[in-house]
Design goal:
The protein is mostly helical. It has helices at residues 2-9, 30-43, 50-57, 64-76, 83-97, 109-118. It starts with a helix and ends in a 10-residue tail after the last helix.
């Protein structure tokens, strides 16, 4: 994780961290993985294995990082062969936030909802 953090801090070219999506299947602490992967997705437009990243993030409806990561992936996925899977996992994540107490819903929920709507999932607009 030290090297991953150093790569993020080094302000490398945008594509330099695209391979970070490959860490989706690694046994890394979830909070650390979400933080680093979200930062990597914000830095590098097209993460590898975006569908697997979205699937792992979908297991964390109470996490700001998971919701922000999913929003970035939805925004970056159009036109890729992984688009449908990314959107499916992102929508499942959004739907899972509805089961949380209203006061415990992460603020990033709105950003994910907007990303899904903008990607063509108009049903996400009605997700309470």
């Amino acid at each position: 994780m030290v090297l991953w953090r150093a790569a993020l801090a080094a302000r490398l070219p945008a594509v330099a961290l695209a391979g970070a999506g490959g860490f989706a299947g690694t046994a890394v602490d979830e909070a650390v993985w979400l933080e680093l992967t979200r930062s990597s997705a914000g830095h590098s437009p097209a993460l590898t294995d975006a569908d697997l990243v979205a699937e792992r993030a979908a297991a964390h409806p109470g996490s700001e990082d998971a919701l922000l990561l999913a929003a970035v992936l939805v925004t970056q996925a159009p036109g890729t062969w992984r688009e449908a899977a990314v959107r499916r996992h992102a929508r499942a994540l959004l739907d899972a936030t509805a089961a949380l107490p209203a006061a415990g819903r992460p603020a990033a929920r709105q950003e994910l909802r907007t990303a899904l709507v903008n990607a063509g999932d108009v049903g996400a607009a009605s997700c309470q």
